[in-house]
Amino acid sequence: MPVSVTNSKLIYEALKACDVKIMSALPETWLVHLIRMADDDPDVTLVRLAKEEEGIGISAGAHLAGVNSALLMQNHGFLAAINPIVSLAQLYKIPLLMLVSYRGYMGEKDPWQTQGGLATEPILRALNIPTWQLTSANDIYPRLKDAQTLAHASLLPVAVLLTRELMWED
Amino acid sequence: MLRIDALQAIYPDLEDCIVVTIMGAVAAELYSLGHRPNFFYLEHAMGLASSMGLGIALSMPEHQVVVLDGDGSLLMNLGTLSTMARYKPGNLLHIVFDNESLLSVGGFPTATSSGTNLADIARASGVPCVKESGTIQSFQVSVSEALKSKTLTTIVSKVEAISPNSFHMDLTLLENRFQFWRSLQVMRNQSKTRKTERNK
């Protein structure tokens, strides 16, 4: 599977440097290595979800209980979680660090991913969610750190889009 | 059984727990019995009170968390039962008041009025302890046993579809949120201090 192990590892290490203790996830191809790393890490609780919406509730609970968390989701999972992002996280001022695999954009071969790819950024903008795109390995550590810093300072959700350039090795 | 009577019966047990409720009648009635800083009322995002409870229970394993859910909310997030069952935090008690209707938004019947059985779904999802209570006394016993058991428990309790006299709560959403967050911080610090003293 040509998902980048090296960059997945860098992302995982950056999350650890952000003191993330709970990661919620729903499997998707680009996230497989990240999810395995979380599963193998005794210091991290990986919560395997039935649907991404639950992850917003789990992260909200973790934040109110003083624990840093991150959400690993596909952009279609982000689309599935919009109501709780708005009516829990934004309404109640809950920081979220959302790592979103950016499927359906340039270079995407799977036709079924393409419509969600077109919708992702416009919807993030419509929701006023600050968004980084990660395209190069050098950006991973500072951008994840910055994203978490802003989430905690603003008490709001932020998104980090994991792009094909970063995650996929053809 | 009236929900308010059930809540009143377990209120002394709830006082020191971290409590997360759904919106509407459950929130208003618990509030009317006496608000505490460790009570959080999720006034929107239907279905996610139990997910929040799970997030708190996993983050604060030394503290008891109680979620007050409803049939309409739980039906919107049935996957939560399988996720809770997967991690089985022993400090999480999940109470579902089933009035077979979406009471706060017009009283339309939910699927539990036509045969869906939430206790059976919870059991089949793998929740290790599931109970059904139809009387105040059995409800009170189930709650106090669940709190002692240190086992993830779902209690489904059929209640009448009767609204509280008032849904008014003199508490803004953000006031509740920050007060709750602070209260959990105090709880964590207190247990840390107790631990340090024990180790001296």
Mind explaining what this structure looks like?
The complex is a heterodimer of chains A (170) and B (200). By secondary structure, chain A is an alpha/beta fold. In chain A, 50% of the residues lie in helices and 18% in strands. Chain A has eight helices and six strands; from the N terminus they run αβαβαβααβαβαβα. Chain A has helices spanning 5-17, 32-40, 52-64, 75-80, 82-90, 114-126, 137-154, 164-167; strands at 22-25, 45-48, 69-74, 96-101, 131-134, 157-162. Chain A has a six-stranded parallel beta sheet with strand order 2-1-3-4-6-5, sandwiched between helices. The termini of chain A are close together. The relative contact order of chain A is 0.18. The mean pLDDT of chain A is 97. By secondary structure, chain B is of the alpha/beta class. Chain B has one domain: Rossmann fold. In chain B, the strands form two sheets. In chain B, strands 2-1-3-4-8-7 form a six-stranded parallel beta sheet, sandwiched between helices. In chain B, helix 1 runs parallel beside helix 7 (136-149). Chain A binds chain B through residues 21-22, 45, 47-51, 53-67, 69, 83-84, 87-88, 91-94, and chain B through 20, 40, 42, 44-45, 47-60, 77, 79-80, 82-83, 86-87, 173-174, 177, 180-181, 184-185, 188.
